[in-house]
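Entry:
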Amino acid sequence: MGRRRDERELRTKSSRRPVPPATLVLHVGVIGAFLLLSLIIWGHVWFTGHPTHTITCQCGDPAEEVWWFEWLPWAVLHGHNPFFTNALYAGNGGVNALANVSVMLPALMLSPVTLLFGPIATFNVAATLSPIISGYCMFLLVRKFTRFAPAPVLAGLLWGFSPSVIDWLPFGHLVDVLGFFLPLAGLVVYDLLIDHNRPPWVDGILLGVLAIAQFFTSTEVLGIVVVTAPAGVAVAIVLAYRIIWANRRALCIAAGSALAMAGALLAYPAWFAVAGPRHVVGPPWVDNAQGELLSAIVNPGPGDHLRTTGLGQLAGYWGARGPYYGYLGWGVLVFIAISFPVWRKTILAWCAVATGVWAWALSWGVPAFGSGWRPWSVFNAMPVVSDIRPFRFTDVVAFSAALLLAICLDGWWKLATAKAALRRSRARSFLGSCSELCPSP
């Protein structure tokens, strides 16, 4: 304990040093680049339209998100229960907000925008900022274990602007694309096992806060993490058992703190979502069985270069649909495969592989007519968990691929710099030997 306290004090003192200008420029540059890319994607709102009147399409999903953005500040200011509303389906008993895509945390944080400029502006701001927040959180995580500057930038780009994000943003699915939870939770776990900058109970509280924030953003993403994380944890226990055993007390304290906080603050909202008034009974999607196979990962699909589907046009969206939400491409997969020599001894890489493969297997869903067995068959009949749409597990596949991509790039960079340093050392040794054999007069 004394040694850990000394290490923490030393790290605290070092953390008080001023941020180097180069580091500050890098962070500002990354945020600026992500912002520029997001503005280009939403150019029809910010450049050719008007952010308080222009929306992606006059279809159901964006309209519903706009409604929820307006509902929360109105309910709070007028003393209504934000978890339930009679303003929708009034003749049928109202709507349970926690059983719907009400994006309560983003709606709360962006309430000033709603009150000043209206809910359409809030929707556009949220849609523009979502990939930036996701990408920058991934950038912060990858910076912890890489030194090659492009590695965290590309990882953040792949996570923040993945095909899943590009596919769902036009339809207003903010609950599917705001990916802050996984990278920020990874940062907390990294501090628990490696950095030890904070007391374990503080890290536990941070994990609890992140779980609460994710619950009020998207319960589906929280469920996806709960189902897929055990694969990576199991690999970590096998390969990093010494690190985990050495930090067993800190992990127990953190887990207890996280469960206590999240359990206390989410007990009532969780009950309200699954058993409260007007809660959803049964699978919310009739096509919840069919998922994605290998072809969706390596084939961008016809939507990559064609207009949207007939269903999308019927809903009011006429833009390009983009690639499949699970698309990664042969280039990423082949690069990760040929980079095996540089990541094969990295524990985090194996955790990412296990988690990504498990998530990919779950994304298969079950056969369309229920014949045969797939991994998702284990969860397809479970209450609450079965509400997850299998193809959404491709988000975790993209997260794992982003981590692996960064590890591979950093590994090749370390190998190249090590060889360059070896060549310089040999050159210096050779010159030194020459000077000894042929001393100058």
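The longest strand covers residues 84-85.
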